[in-house]
Amino acid sequence: MRKTNLFISIVFGLVLLLSGCADKKPDPKPENFLTLADLTGRVTLKEDSPGVRVIRIKAKAFIKRNDIRAAKAKAMEVAGAQAVDAMVRELLSDEDYNNNFADIEQYLSKNIQEYIVSSEINDEKKIYGGKYYGLDTAHKVNRQKVLVALQKDLKLINNSASTLVPVITSKKNIDLSASGFTFNDLEDALMNQIQTDLNQRGLRAMDFRNAVTSVQTDEKVKKQFAKISKDQFMAIVSGSPADRALLDPQIQNAEKFYTTGLSLLKQMAKVVVEVNIFAVSGNIKGDLALSLNVTAKNVSTGRGGAFANTVINVARRGGPNVIPSAMITGLVKDAYEEMQQEFVPQVIKEMSTISIGGKRLVAYELVLKDFGGGEVRKLRTKLKQGQNDEFRYISYDNSVPTIVTIIVRHAGNVEDLADKVMIIFDSAGIKAKEPIVAPDLTDLVFVRIPDED
Fold first, then answer.
1. Of 153, 181, 200, which one is at a domain's C-terminal end?
2. What is the DSSP letter of 150?
3. Which of 153, 179, 207 is the last residue of a domain?
4. Given this model, what pLDDT does residue 359 score?
5. Whether 413 and 326 share a structural domain
């Protein structure tokens, strides 16, 4: 009986052991054909200020002489370059980017890390049959440094496109003597806060007087606008009717004043930010409240008009020992913190030339596995013949056995590019698997399906 129980126990233990082994899936072998689509991870970097973007990139590098470390470093370098390129595409107009992408790539590639605040690797593994090393990465890119490179060095962005003019106004001529300070104190504090913050974000925030002075190289313009008042400046921005344009006896021709004035504005700035102070109530010995309206108007395009508007109300508790300058600083700081929540990000977005679903030419890699040499040549010929404003053939690489990479530039949806290639294959009677398409992928992998015997 004991022998029988012992035998049953051994058999039962073996069954448990075998079942446990069966549940455990074997790790994927390097020779399995994994692609960048198989790489996925969680991004931890945060866009903690409007001056940076977190850009996710998947990239790969060929493993030479079985040196994984070198391949990983090269893949990270490629990913960084692609992240900076994505930031450039955000800042430039479609036409400027498409006409200069080769020069941009050559210039920025000299020191990619100068434009990247930090990077992280979310996932990594051998891919493409163990011949390449792939990375899923994220990069925090410094918008200001990229903007400066495009402006000062590459001369691809006009200064007026990154310039805005803040104007502080008060239509009620508020008397602040009871509050313990003057309106000029409040005006200067707000102006300094706005200019300092936006200048640090890569923009040129100029007082309206400095902005007008900066373009007075033409003697005629200088004569007409040398003594332009704040009211006149805001009249130009708001586009008041001609019969209300005579804000000063020196302006005799109202229509000419507006026509020339708007032309002047477009030369010196893209956006005008108007801060209109409604009221300041109370005094520094008690509670002090500030109420204002802040509006941003794009004056560089035909559509013009306000694109951002916020009403802000802030208050501070004073007392017998409060210093007036400290009270002003506190109110301005509180008001600007409110502006930073929604208003400032809208201004920064408008100042850049972000185009949702734009037509910029993006670099893609068409990866072909197990295709014959004649089939690859046929595809390349068709791609070259199909070049237009939204598609460019760049180059190809066949240095890796069984894998050929064709580099192209495509504007539009990545699925349209995939369909373009599949249609060429279908018309030539070549069977291939549909590539995996995803937002983070800039390579499309086409695997040849063997012909039936």
1. 153
2. I
3. 153
4. 76
5. no
The tally of domains found in the chain comes to 3
Beta strands in 326-380 (DSSP E): 362-369
Cα 164 to its chain centre, rounded Å, is: 19
Residue identified by tokens 């404003």 is 389
Closest residue by Cα to residue 338 from 309, 371, 313: 313
CA gap 135, 72 in Å, rounded:
8
149: CATH: 3.10.129
Distance of CA 78 to the CA centre of its chain: 18
Give the chain's largest Cα–Cα span.
121
State the Cα–Cα distance between residues 123 and 38, nearest whole angstrom. Answer: 9
390 close to 410: Cβ distance less than 8 angstroms? yes
**pLDDT score for 385:** 94
* pLDDT (0 to 100) of residue 21: 54
Please give the single-letter amino acid code of residue 186: L
> Which residues in the chain land under pLDDT 50?
28, 30, 250, 354-357
The predicted pLDDT at position 331 comes to: 85
**Sign of the CA dihedral running 112, 115, 119, 125:** negative
Same domain, residue pair 343 and 428: no
What's residue 432's pLDDT? 95
Q: Helices H, strands E: what count in the chain?
A: 12, 12
Residue range(s) defining the domain that contains residue 91: 36-153
- The answer, as to whether pTM is greater than 0.70, is no
CA angle 429, 435, 439 (to 5 degrees): 145
